[in-house]
């Protein structure tokens, strides 16, 4: 069977994290079975992992010498692997492929996160009675779990990530062969060479985008997200909405665009639109310098990472689109739900976000294969670095205590010491460069003041109103309501008294 990735990608380590890779010079039944079991348990929802046989591992777990596998031993290794994997309980079988690279043979083993975890295997796989252990993966090591980690595994037993679940409302015909072939060709998978001759069911099984017996073979959600022409049929509002306010939130002009289709396609289309219509290069001519200074109103790298992360981490069982609001002085990218609780609000403010568990293990896997995201907890740092290198203000990352939303705000590069005559844009300037409010910025500021006044009037008459009641009354996003409430509290104009569920608003 062929895998939906290639050996070169695994050896480079640029797409699949080292913690999801294990390299062995030869087939080691005891150690390798533990690793396969640990990948199947997928404690952190990484998407399982890969075992590559025929590569000598270095001390830090990265690939060393490519020794290859003796061709005379390949069949024996595969048969023994099959027999040893039968010792895993519940039943679990990884996907294997024998590949030729640089004139040598290698065995690639893909062990995706299982749907019946937790899995256990014998401590000593000899066939004789032996202690069974729920192996897990930590960093680049396979270890025996602590009692707390074992409880985590049991908690996850009936909590398969939504993107890896079977969709009982869809059929195999809802998966598009052209989209599948396009993906396989893009990532350099050997499956592409067999896509036209392989039975479609087997092709989908090899990609792990279907599950179930032959008589009831159904697509997984992730398969429909990437390889259905109309994923919104199965996941309402699985789309990206870009809303532009050229005159600010209080202006009369609103430009709306909606991007639908397979996730990677809508992401690329939305990014291309933002790159073509929103990102502008600014050229500043200074009297004390011979060369003009060049920068962008928004660094494209920061926009790309922010929107890619929103697609990666969105909850696709939630009927909320990803919303991109383009204002004169900032871009806001809003997605639902919020950050995992392993990421603290204080950590977000300090640009530290080390998520312990991924929400969409398979969505991230496909996006990383297409190099649309990294998924290594580096997103915030990359956005911050791109903003600072461009001379833009630092971005803002926000979530709420209930973790209902996640908001990224990218601020435009608008230096206050540049006069209008100094600055030129490649397609015209978006606002004043004098340090004073432009008409659009003044309108946005006044609009915010009026909106907060309306908020105060509403909660004064409806002291038990929920955030959702306020949002619907004001016709704005949840994040906007949260920011307004926070600002009013800081100004001493609003208080909240009582428990979260039964409290009331106090207008001061």
TrEMBL record:
Residues 17-142 form the Schlafen AlbA-2 domain. The keyword Protein transport does not apply. Residues 416-442 are annotated as: Disordered. The keyword DNA-binding does not apply. Pfam families: HATPase_c_4, SLFN_AlbA_2. One of its GO terms (molecular function) is ATP binding. InterPro entries: RecG_C_sf (IPR038475), Schlafen_AlbA_2_dom (IPR007421), Schlafen_AlbA_2_dom_sf (IPR038461), WH-like_DNA-bd_sf (IPR036388), WH_DNA-bd_sf (IPR036390). It comes from the Bacteria. Keywords: ATP-binding, Nucleotide-binding. PANTHER family: GLPR-RELATED TRANSCRIPTIONAL REPRESSOR (PTHR30595), SCHLAFEN ALBA-2 DOMAIN-CONTAINING PROTEIN (PTHR30595:SF6). This is ATP-binding protein.
């Amino acid at each position: 069977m062929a895998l939906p990735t290639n050996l070169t990608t695994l050896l480079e380590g640029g797409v699949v994290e080292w913690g999801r890779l294990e390299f062995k010079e030869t087939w080691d039944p005891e150690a390798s079975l533990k690793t396969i079991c640990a990948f199947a348990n997928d404690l952190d929802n990484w998407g399982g992992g890969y075992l590559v046989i025929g590569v000598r591992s270095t001390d830090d777990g990265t690939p060393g010498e490519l020794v290859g596998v003796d061709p005379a031993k390949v069949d024996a290794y595969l048969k023994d692997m099959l027999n040893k994997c039968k010792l895993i309980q519940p039943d679990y079988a990884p996907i294997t492929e024998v590949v030729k690279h640089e004139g040598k043979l290698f065995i690639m083993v893909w062990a995706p996160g299982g749907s019946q975890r937790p899995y256990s295997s014998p401590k000593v796989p000899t066939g004789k009675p032996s202690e069974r252990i729920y192996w897990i993966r930590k960093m680049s090591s396979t270890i025996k779990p602590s009692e707390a980690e074992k409880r985590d595994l049991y908690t996850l037993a009936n909590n398969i990530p939504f993107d890896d679940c079977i969709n009982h409302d869809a059929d195999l015909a809802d998966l598009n062969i052209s989209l599948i072939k396009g993906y396989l060709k893009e990532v350099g998978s050997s499956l592409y060479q067999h896509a036209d001759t392989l039975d479609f069911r087997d092709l989908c099984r090899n990609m792990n985008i279907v599950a179930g017996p032959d008589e009831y073979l159904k697509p997984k959600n992730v398969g429909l997200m990437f390889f259905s022409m109309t994923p919104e049929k199965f996941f309402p509002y699985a789309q990206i909405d870009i809303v532009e306010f050229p005159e600010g939130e209080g202006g009369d002009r609103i430009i709306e665009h909606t991007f639908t289709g397979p996730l990677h396609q809508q992401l690329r289309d939305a990014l291309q639109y933002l790159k073509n219509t929103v990102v502008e290069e600014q050229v500043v001519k200074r009297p004390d310098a011979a060369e003009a200074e060049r920068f962008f109103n928004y660094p494209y790298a920061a926009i790309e990472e922010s929107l890619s992360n929103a697609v990666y981490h969105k909850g696709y069982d939630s009927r909320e689109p990803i919303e991109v609001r383009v204002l004169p002085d900032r871009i806001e990218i809003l997605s639902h739900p919020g950050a995992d609780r392993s990421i603290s609000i204080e950590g977000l403010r300090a640009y530290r976000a080390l998520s312990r568990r991924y929400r969409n293990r398979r969505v991230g896997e496909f996006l990383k294969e297409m190099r649309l995201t990294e998924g290594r907890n580096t997103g915030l740092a990359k956005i911050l670095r791109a903003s600072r290198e461009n001379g833009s203000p630092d971005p803002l990352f926000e979530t709420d205590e209930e973790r209902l939303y996640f908001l990224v705000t990218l601020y435009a590069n608008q230096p206050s010491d540049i006069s209008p005559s100094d600055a030129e844009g490649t397609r015209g300037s978006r606002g004043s460069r004098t340090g004073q409010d432009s008409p659009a910025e003044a309108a946005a500021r006044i609009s915010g003041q009026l909106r907060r006044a309306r908020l105060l009037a509403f909660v004064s008459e409806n002291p038990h109103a929920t955030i959702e009641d306020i949002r619907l009354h004001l016709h704005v996003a949840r994040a906007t309501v949260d920011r307004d409430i926070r600002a009013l509290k800081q100004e001493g104009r609003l208080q909240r008294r009582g428990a979260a569920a039964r409290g009331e608003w106090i207008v001061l």
